[in-house]
Amino acid sequence: MGRIKLDLHDIYSNGRAIESELKRVMEEAVRKKINEVEIIPGKGSGQLKKHVLRFLAQPDIKQLYHRLEKDDKNFGRIFIHFRS
């Protein structure tokens, strides 16, 4: 039923804002029955991507989605797939 895109470049240095935005987008995807969320932590040093992956691995967050996919063509993108 669609896709949501979340670009974290603007808030990369604010840990609370990152977690808040990730939580917001996950809840929105569930509420609107979205099929896919694209998260763009960017390439950089990889620390932001690790932060995002740790957030997504939390049990209460992990139960919200079906599958996580790291883009093999672009290191700076993560796709979260939801069941319809």
Give the structure's gist in a few sentences.
The chain has 84 residues and is an alpha+beta fold. It is 37% helix and 21% strand.
Distance between the termini: 8 Å
* Helix-strand makeup class: alpha+beta
Q: How are helices and strands ordered from N to C?
A: EHEHHEE
Helix content bin:
25-40%
Overall form: globular
Query: How much beta, percentage-wise?
Result: 15-25%
**Strand arrangement, largest sheet?**
1-2-4-3
Quantity of strands, as a count:
4
Estimate the mean pLDDT confidence.
Answer: 90
Total domain units? 1
User: DSSP helix count?
Assistant: 3
Low-pLDDT runs of 5+ residues are none
CATH architecture: 2-Layer Sandwich
Query: How is the main sheet built?
Result: 4 strands, mixed
Query: How large is the radius of gyration?
Result: 12 Å
Named CATH topology? Ribosomal Protein S8, Chain: A, domain 1
The CATH C-level class name: Alpha Beta
Which helices and strands, and how do they pair?
Layout (H helix, E strand, L loop, with lengths): L2 E5 L7 H17 L4 E5 L6 H10 L2 H4 L4 E4 L7 E4 L3
Parallel strand pairs: 1-2
Antiparallel strand pairs: 2-4, 3-4
Fold and architecture overview:
15% of the residues are buried. This protein is of the alpha+beta class and 84 residues long. It contains 3 helices and 4 strands; from the N terminus they run E-H-E-H-H-E-E. A 4-stranded mixed β-sheet has the order 1-2-4-3, covered by helices on one side. Helix content is 37%, strand content 21%. The protein has a single domain (3-81), classed as Ribosomal Protein S8, Chain: A, domain 1, CATH 3.30.1370. The mean pLDDT is 90.
